[in-house]
User: Fold Kynureninase from Gemmatimonas aurantiaca.
Amino acid sequence: MDAISSAQIAALDAADPLAAFRARFSLPEGVTYLDGNSLGALPRATADRVRDVIEGEWGEGLIRSWNSADWINAPRRVGAKIARLVGANPHEVIVADSTSVNLHKLIIAALRARPGRHAVLSEPGNFPTDLYMLETAIATLGGAHALTLTPRDEIVSHITEETALVLLTHVHYKTADVHDMAAITAAAQAKGAMVLWDLSHSVGALPLALNACNADLAVGCGYKFLNGGPGAPAFLFVAERHHASLVSPLGGWMGHAQPFAFTDHYEPASGISRFLCGTPSVVGMAALECGVDLHLEADMQEIARKSRALAELFMGLVHMRCAEHDVTLVGPPPGAPRGSHVSFRHPEGYAIMQALIARGVIGDFRAPDIMRFGLTPLYLRYADIVHAVDVLEDVLRTRAWQAPEYRTRQAVT
Amino acid sequence: MDAISSAQIAALDAADPLAAFRARFSLPEGVTYLDGNSLGALPRATADRVRDVIEGEWGEGLIRSWNSADWINAPRRVGAKIARLVGANPHEVIVADSTSVNLHKLIIAALRARPGRHAVLSEPGNFPTDLYMLETAIATLGGAHALTLTPRDEIVSHITEETALVLLTHVHYKTADVHDMAAITAAAQAKGAMVLWDLSHSVGALPLALNACNADLAVGCGYKFLNGGPGAPAFLFVAERHHASLVSPLGGWMGHAQPFAFTDHYEPASGISRFLCGTPSVVGMAALECGVDLHLEADMQEIARKSRALAELFMGLVHMRCAEHDVTLVGPPPGAPRGSHVSFRHPEGYAIMQALIARGVIGDFRAPDIMRFGLTPLYLRYADIVHAVDVLEDVLRTRAWQAPEYRTRQAVT
Assistant:
């Protein structure tokens, strides 16, 4: 990469078709936020919407708002909106619980739908909760299933007639490597297995096409690229062809065929609603809807295009200016398909990241040595990338990260 | 009950030691809210607190707030506060997920802790989600367990050496009948069984003494008497003696011994934290904390005393003025122990409740024929009870409920 002038950067920002979205977010002064893949920034609309929900719908409407504000349909309404971002039909996506809980529902449902098969596949280094939820689901089912963690390039060759389920995160949370959803899904289905895709690091960052890939099952996170707020509700996708045969192991009243008949016996709702469990967070649902609405206003292809351009710029500048300081790119090289974050390895990654944060450049650290930077096209400018690399180079060159205060580990890293 | 004068009612309100708490809630004009057992009213502090969380902690603090605003410890911090309301130690209660999901965690954990036993007991007409979660948990475990629904007076005599678990709702959601927690717990433990108490209709309404009853396990709801807001996070209690031996079937990353080590294998946290699963709703947690804090300011004994006085007044007035209109008390008679709601049966209960709601007296309807009125001592006055009965009597006497608009069923009843 050649040196790039500030005039060139200004021109990129001036020509950015998504530039106007930045003003739709509330961003703190003096901060370059490169962690929207961990917690998305606050849309300006959200604060007002949440106030309406709290003071109007809850405070004034009280219990009546289940009908008058249509709280009862929020999981389906917001789910149908997310369906447009993931290439699904509106009735195939529902918002509920957390990603982890939704993983459990679909893992158990899938394994019970393949009773003769006992092999489960995932990859080492998958996002931990995916692996943990697999482990504990297998234990709950009595331990007859065997979980194998196979390096990502060998997964397809390990799928056999014995495989019940493959669970993969579409975009890797550390490296931004992307799985080929269509190819893996087809390979699994050819052997009679199902694939459960974790879209937490994809949704809102990349265009997704679940139905075009003939996907079976998916889950995803609401608080990363969807900007739903800390601990936002998650979503799940079940292809329509599986609606009748898959049953949630968490048969809560909200997923009952007639929740307000108050019968003693569980009868799952028809369709995607059977994957609801207890009463959903109404405030969480409303905040998530604001973030999703912003993405529906934008063009996902445009978002993906800018994500790639930001990433190429970031990788190029770091290579040019920081490589001599032991900073190594992790994950896909420039030009290759990738998710919307960029990660670099450095033995002192933790302290370097603390020094960056102290200077207003916020990324995050993933053990043991990865500095991760999220690229969110709706609220980042090309100039922000240049600034982040300026600060990174300065911290490395001056060895500012050696200050003792950057070496104290915090509760959340 | 003798007729009671408005002067006497005014004197009761004037002498009420909890009277000042009413001003701490945001209550709509012209409404007498008797449904706080379904969705508690909005504490005034909550709107400000939620705005701080959204605009300050999320908007300004962004990802840093997991440390700087101590989001990471909210489940334990709010859990420790709820522990004071339920008679538990601070480290025995944690806030997480929904009541239904927490039921699942503890049902599966308890059944796996009693591997030789296959009988599970509950009562017919228990709150549906308790029964549904039992049914679906048993199915997940392979169907070897048998769920028996035993009338409430016969439960103790049905507990045998074969019983693994008894799951009961402490206060019945329709009738307000109260189980004897100490007696049932002791009877179950004498046979080697565990009891899981659903406190959804008790917590914040009655003083509870889990440890004094030697309780094993409990769950409870945040959005009823605790005023945590629609779909507030729920809580669970596990007695310290069970912490090491019970493992959650929902082994999400937040319940891992080292969530930020990002290892491939699940190792449950020590103590109550192992019952966390995914990322909790930060906003939901903050709103719940406001409601819990109000209860900690008040005296639970005082709340229970006023609850009983409101109920006796309500039952007495309805008996005196509405009995001739086919209104029959359901549940404990005057003088008997009860929860903090009062229910009446009427064949046209649905339409009558709609007519009441149209007149600003908000209770709810529970199929097939129950009109239910929640009594929340922190924000109800004795005068509100008199007003509610005035309106009820008027609706019955004029047969106002016969209007067609009151007979159209809404999505949420």
Q: What stands out?
A: Chain B touches chain A through 96 residues (CB under 8 Å).
